[in-house]
Specification:
With 307 residues, the protein is α/β, with parallel strands linked by helices. It folds into 2 domains: 192 residues, Periplasmic binding protein-like II (D-Maltodextrin-Binding Protein, domain 2, 3-Layer(aba) Sandwich); 100 residues, Periplasmic binding protein-like II (D-Maltodextrin-Binding Protein, domain 2, 3-Layer(aba) Sandwich). The protein is built from 10 helices and 13 strands. The strands form 4 sheets. Strands 11-10-12-9-13 form a 5-stranded mixed beta sheet, sandwiched between helices. A 3-stranded parallel beta sheet has the order 7-3-8. Helix 3 runs antiparallel to helix 10. The longest helix has 16 residues. The chain is elongated and about 65 Å long. The two termini are 13 Å apart.
Length: 307
């Protein structure tokens, strides 16, 4: 499963439950396109000091302009999306970009890009690609990868699971999902199997936006909703605990930072920087701030498609 390809419709964080919007304190280290916005994270990259040893690992091709240029497709909250001002990139991938740039002593420059164009442009137009990419065999042949997270698909129910939903037996349950996603297909497969087996009918409710699917559970219209792991975690955070995740994550894949296939120096530097951010607690702060605790890993890997 490709995590990003499983989302057919952009999730608008500007309207997410109409409660997104705590002020961010971090706008000093980003390009002109990444300033003055609202955010659900209060991450501040200005507190991160340059690591001279790690910075020295980067080739001149990366450092010569003083910027870390990163391609991102900004329609996937909470990983990367446009804030309520209509122009500022936000999300945990954006915060990670800022943190990496700070470790390298560079200025973060997030460039809004079409998803399919990012990997082919790494090493020419972009220094890195950080945009919710899952690492698979096809992508291993196209770029170098440093893993920084993991994600799959996750259910959520009302806090306390009042309907006593069992993810291993969803017959008779009302499942909400976004139209066109892998999760919707999975829910429909579940419904078909329940019908075939002569069990209670499962109702699949499809919505144009993930926000509507989550809201259906909050309001009681649906019993459970299914979405990509970070999206589910973000919904839990944005509803102030009205929801909770249920069961284990399914079809989990590693998330990776794309680097030019022939650039081992940058690959090694990015791995070292991610390790530093994990060890000093910055990494955890970033993902916790977006309700994406389930995305975190213990250590990065290079060119590894396994979790």
């Amino acid at each position: 499963m490709s995590l990003r390809k499983s989302i057919a419709i952009a999730l608008s964080a500007a309207t997410l439950f109409a409660v997104a919007g705590c002020g961010t304190t971090d706008d000093s280290d980003t390009s002109s396109s990444t300033k003055s916005s609202t955010s659900s994270s209060k991450f501040d990259a200005s507190t991160i000091k340059k690591d001279d040893k790690i910075a020295a690992m980067l080739p001149d091709s990366i450092t010569k302009d003083g910027k870390l240029t990163v391609g991102a497709e900004l329609t996937y909250a909470p990983a990367e999306f446009v804030g309520s001002d209509g122009k500022t990139p936000q999300g945990y991938d954006i915060d990670l970009t800022k943190a990496l740039a700070a470790v390298f002593g560079l200025k973060a420059d997030v460039v809004s890009s079409s998803f399919d164009s990012i990997i082919p442009s790494v090493g020419t137009k972009y220094d890195l690609g950080i945009s919710g990419f899952t690492v698979d065999e096809d992508r291993l042949s196209a770029a170098n990868w440093v893993t920084y997270g993991k994600a799959g698909m996750t259910y959520a129910v009302k806090k306390g699971n009042p309907e006593k939903i069992d993810v291993n037996n969803l017959c008779g349950v009302k499942i909400a999902a976004q139209t066109g996603t892998v999760e919707e297909e999975s829910a429909k497969d579940t419904a078909a199997k329940c019908k075939k087996d002569g069990k209670d009918e499962t109702e699949v409710q499809s919505f144009d936006q993930q926000t509507a699917a989550a809201t259906a559970v909050v309001t009681g219209k649906a019993d459970i909703f299914y979405a990509d792991t970070p999206v589910t975690g973000y919904a839990v955070k944005q509803t102030d605990g009205a929801l909770e995740t249920l069961g284990e994550d399914a079809e989990v894949s590693p998330l990776g930072i794309a680097i030019s296939k022939d650039d081992q120096k940058t690959t090694d530097a990015v791995k070292a920087a991610v390790e530093k951010l994990i060890s000093d607690g910055t990494y955890k702060k970033i993902f916790d701030g977006w309700g994406a605790e389930g995305v975190t890993i213990d250590a990065p890997k290079v060119n590894d498609a396994t979790v």
